[in-house]
Amino acid sequence: INYTKMSNNLSYTRVFCLNSQAMWEIFILNTPLVPKTISRMSSLQNFVGLSVSDGYIATGSETNEVFIYHKAFPMPALSFKFYSSDPLSGNEEDDSAQFITSVCWRGQSSTLVAANSTGNVKILEMT
């Protein structure tokens, strides 16, 4: 298990890697131990962060994207791709060597802070 987070007083979320798959599961406390698997995605070498708030699960990825899941659905509800800016042209480029390293919800809000492996930080708002 790479990460565990209490979602509220009744459930917790965990992420773990099995072979090359990362799995996110929600466990409801005081019920038989049958997890609800939210998603499986490739995670070859880097743990890419997890943050839980009000039924939403935010996670980074090795594809330099932030994914937001809702506990009721097995697929992402939203995603956001980080791009690198070329300092000379100002053009945004896809840099597949980078990955999201950290995600964190701001309290009980719809604001998410995410950072990638180059130190690029974004403040994202779900609307």
Automatic annotation (TrEMBL):
Xref: InterPro entries: SPA1/2/3/4, WD40/YVTN_repeat-like_dom_sf, WD40_repeat_dom_sf
GO biological processes: photomorphogenesis
PANTHER family: PROTEIN SPA1-RELATED 2, PROTEIN SPA1-RELATED 3
Name used for this protein in its record: Uncharacterized protein
Lineage: Eukaryota, Viridiplantae, Streptophyta, Embryophyta, Tracheophyta
